[in-house]
Amino acid sequence: METELLKRIRTSLEDDKAEDIVMIDMGSRSSLCDAVVIASGRSTRHVMSIADHLARRLKELGYGNRPVNGATQGDWALVDAGDVIVHIFRPEVRDYYDLEGMWASQ
Questions:
Q1: Calpha distance 41→24 (Å, rounded)
Q2: How far apart (Å, rounded) are the C-alpha atoms in residues 95 and 5?
Q3: Is the pLDDT of residue 106 over 70?
Q4: What is the pTM of this model?
Q5: Is residue 15 part of a domain?
Q6: Nearest to residue 92, comparing CAs of 17, 19, 46, 40?
Q7: Which member of 22, 40, 55, 90 lies 3.0 to 4.6 Å from 66 by CB, making a disulfide possible if both were Cys?
Q8: Is 71 contained in some domain?
Q9: Whole domain around residue 85: which residue ranges?
Q10: Mean pLDDT, the chain, as a whole number?
């Protein structure tokens, strides 16, 4: 079931033209978060922009300051949205780390 936070994250990612958005339920697998969201940006600049916009929108929606890690390099940015961790990759970096494959096999 998609929570309000997940809906808002999906909307922000879609508004910024993120590609291949995948949501993975982590409720029974991890105490770290309830869900992981993985998306792709077309370039380093696109990845950085998606991450920065998501963090800003979440703050504006009342979720407080959301840490963004890795956005300065632009290959892989992580937005810690509390109960949801959002990974935004360039496509070739996403393929290399294959987080979907890692979590799907569990």
A1: 18
A2: 26
A3: no
A4: 0.91
A5: yes
A6: 40
A7: 55
A8: yes
A9: 4-98
A10: 90
